[in-house]
Amino acid sequence: MSANYLTPSDLKTILHSKRANIYYLEKCRVQVNGGRVEYVTSEGKESFYWNIPIANTTALLLGMGTSVTQAAMREFAHAGVMVGFCGTDGTPLYSANEVDVDVSWLSPQSEYRPTEYLQKWVSFWFDENKRLQAAKGFQQIRLAQIEKRWLSSQMQRESAFQPDPAALQTLLNRASDEMAQAEDHTLLMLAEAKLTKALYKMVSQTVGYGDFTRAKRGGGIDSANRFLDQGNYLAYGLAAVAAWVTGVPHGLAVMHGKTRRGGLVFDLADLIKDALVMPQAFIAAMAGDGAQTFRQRCINVFQQSDALDIMITSLQETAQSQAEDAQ
Questions:
Q1: Which residues belong to the signal peptide in this entry (predicted)?
Q2: Phi, psi of 145 (to 5 degrees)
């Protein structure tokens, strides 16, 4: 055996939570060349070849004008890379096995994954009260992430985003109380919607964006709405990876299951969307950034805050704690 030969297990030695790369590609061909996965772009009569370090990549978004070879898909599967087909700038997201126009990922990876967390998850999932408790736990993690990230020293150094700590704390405390007292999923989702609306108002006022209304999917004509869509799809990609790594199917949601297919992806993405994507979307909108610059902003902040690690750990700890309570 060649010393340079890598087995599929070798390619997965970098934990998904520690991988650095998320790619969005358009107008190119993804292929295997000399044992490496690369994408090819053309300018006139010249072609340019760029390597994709698959062992250090979590997700790949393929935009308009892209193609991918069977050999490349096989290598992505070996390395545990989640692949999604999407429109311009990463939205909307489609795939060959589309289940929802909101978010859908190709997961051709081996299904021979550990079943520990799946078994713990289903041990409580069919109990509606346990699902509600798990959903409340996710929301508390979400609130903690908002407080931690929005009031962090790094964020405070962002001259364009310095929210009032007292006002933010009051808002988060009120939301925490309302969510803890919610008697069912409907009331919990109402509390969540109320929180999100208040956060949009706070962040838009903080950066001086002016009046802001969150548009429905694909309906945003202003830059903040477009950036929110694009950043959220990146978060959905990380969430899909987190669910795949732990082996819990997307349908076993604790919050969004009755309203959206693939709801666990939305549950996991909500842990970090408000904390990380929302402020970056408004900062980028005020700075006049382009889509590529904004995506890089999001990827950087995801890496700095260990966003994927937060999702995986939250899912694992929720599975463990709720399974113990169900016994």
A1: none
A2: -65, -40
| Total Cβ atoms within 10 A of residue 291 | 17
What residues contact 187, with CB distance under 8 A and at least 6 apart? none
User: Whole-structure pTM over 0.85, yes or no?
Assistant: no
The pLDDT tens digits of the residues spanning 1-39 come to: 344 444 545 545 566 767 777 888 888 999 999 889 999
Cα 14 from chain centroid (whole Å): 19
Distance separating alpha carbons of residues 53 and 3, to the nearest angstrom: 19
Cβ-in-10-Å burial (0-12, 13-18, 19+) of 306 comes to middle
Which pLDDT score is estimated for 244? 82
For 114, 172, 251, the CA distances from 242, given in Å and listed in that order, are 13, 26, 14
Strands 21-25 and 57-62: parallel
- The partner residues of 49 in beta bridges, in order of sequence, read 40
Q: Cis peptide leading into 92, omega within 30 of 0?
A: yes
Contacts of 215 (CB under 8 A, 6+ apart): 221, 222, 225
Contact residues for 290 (Cβ-Cβ < 8 A; gap 6+): none
Q: Is 44 helix (H, G, I), strand (E, B) or coil?
A: coil
Tokens (6 digits) for 222: 């202003």
**How much helix, strand and coil, in percent to the nearest 5, is found in the chain?**
55, 10, 35
Range list of β-strands (E), the chain? 21-25, 29-33, 36-43, 46-51, 57-62, 67-68, 82-86, 93-94
